[in-house]
Specification:
CATH architecture: Orthogonal Bundle
Keywords: Electron transport, Membrane, Mitochondrion, Mitochondrion inner membrane, NAD, Respiratory chain, Translocase, Transmembrane, Transmembrane helix, Transport, Ubiquinone
Largest sheet: none
GO molecular function: NADH dehydrogenase (ubiquinone) activity; oxidoreductase activity, acting on NAD(P)H
Enzyme class: translocase
Number of domains: 1
Shape: elongated
Organism: Neoceratodus forsteri (Australian lungfish)
Distance between the termini: 49 Å
EC number: 7.1.1.2
Helix content: over 70%
Order of helices and strands: HHH
Number of helices: 3
Length: 98
């Protein structure tokens, strides 16, 4: 396993573990999701360079566009929750209430 692959897989795993174990604030969950998307973006960007091909060069840009849409939707939800509940703590959010 190369050093770059190890670094990217460990960054993805650390972000996934942070998302799974650190559920206190909505902002922390969004930051962990952004870390996962960033490690995937860097992995997909370096993959065609290692294989010396130009076949999958548009895939990282598509992933980056989806990550930007996900970040804007997440921040909109964060602002809406902070306005209605007064905080971004996940324990105060109840999905059964309207």
């Amino acid at each position: 396993m190369s050093f770059i692959l190890f670094t990217l897989s460990s960054a993805f795993t650390v972000s996934l573990a942070g998302l799974a174990f650190n559920r206190s604030h909505l902002l922390l969950a969004l930051l962990c999701l952004e870390g996962m998307m960033l490690s995937l973006f860097i992995a997909l960007s370096s993959w065609p360079l290692q294989l010396e091909t130009t076949m999958c060069m548009t895939t990282p840009m598509l992933l980056l566009a989806f990550a930007a849409c996900e970040a804007s939707a997440g921040l909109a939800l964060l602002v809406a929750t902070a306005r209605t509940h007064g905080t971004d703590q996940m324990q105060n959010l109840n999905l059964l209430q309207c």
